[in-house]
Amino acid sequence: MKRKGLYSLLAILVAAIFLITGCSSGVSRPAPQERGKIKIYTTIYPLYDFAAKIAGDRAAVEKVVPAGVEVHDFEPSPKLVAGIYEADVFVYLGGSIDPWAEKLAEQLLKEGVTVVKAGEGLFQEEFHGDEDPHVWLDPVVAKTMAERIAGAIAAKDGENAAYYRKNLEELKKRLDDLDEKYRNSLLPAKKRDFVVNHAAFGYLARRYNLNQIAISGLSPQQEPSPKKLAELSKLCKEKDIRYIMVEAASSSKLADVLARETGTKVLVLHPLENLTEEDMKAGKDYFSIMLENLENLKRALNE
Q1: In contact, 168 and 54? CB cutoff 8 Å
Q2: In terms of domains, do 68 and 207 share one?
Q3: Digits of tens for pLDDT over the chain (303 positions)?
Q4: What are the GO MF terms of this UniProt record (predicted)?
């Protein structure tokens, strides 16, 4: 991704929105109770799901990145940017997954929008030498993100603060239960290594004492060299790895090649960066997909 060009484009978009909407620093924003439900905009799916569970029926939550869109390559349109300026709360992760939001956040703060950088201070650079943004795949770390989101929503809409805090506690309990299921299932597993087509599972692997072996890098578009594929093929045979894990939304072509080379099978391991429209209509959410991931990890690590 050409970030300098992206940031320049975003600066132009923001300036255009100022001209169109008449936005200027110091403009008085009506109190939430004067406008009905507060509006919350989020960037990627996990933030949307947590915000929606916390907000319940007391606030309107929208996701900026459309269903099914590859988040690593997403750029907001002027229309989307204009909509975000109507928000009371804007939630983004930070880091390499939604870099366009960083510049926008600075302008939103000047306009009185409450901004939450949910991943601040949570990223690690130990996975493949790059900053890994996929912190939500660790249920323990996800609790910190949920607390930050709930705190901002409650501060913006004080009348419903107790309601939001109650929903936060229920969400944290579900995250604790999810963590317990993962611990009970994965810590005793026979194998510690699993192969994925997208290096999104470093935090999950660290939490449960596993070792992620990635075909490609932190972005699913990164392709490995023939040498890398040969090394992975040898490693799969040495470690008796019988499954290659692929994310549902990406092409499994490289994983299929490796599976043929090694006689392994393919299983889904969803990174939850975004959901498809079909997933959303089917009622899937963070917890249902994390449990599906757990079942497939159990299979891969015990056969």
Answers
A1: yes
A2: no
A3: 444 444 445 544 544 444 444 443 333 444 554 457 999 999 999 999 999 999 999 999 999 999 989 898 899 999 999 999 999 999 999 988 999 999 899 999 999 999 999 999 998 765 555 678 999 999 999 999 999 999 999 999 999 999 999 999 999 999 999 999 999 999 999 999 999 988 899 999 999 999 999 887 655 555 667 887 788 888 888 999 999 898 865 556 777 777 887 888 989 999 999 999 999 999 999 999 999 999 999 999 999
A4: metal ion binding
Residue ending a domain, choose from 180, 207, 227: 180
Radius of gyration over every alpha carbon of the chain, rounded to an integer in angstroms: 21
Say whether both 169 and 199 belong to one domain: no
Which residues, 6 or more positions from 186, have their beta carbon under 8 angstroms from its beta carbon?
208, 209, 210, 294, 297, 298, 301
Q: Rounded to whole angstroms, how far apart are CA atoms 288 and 125?
A: 28
Question: What is the Cα–Cα distance from 198 to 209, expressed in whole angstroms?
Answer: 19
Q: How many CB atoms lie within 10 A of CB 209?
A: 11
How many distinct structural domains can be found in the chain? Answer: 2
Domain that holds residue 274: 184-302
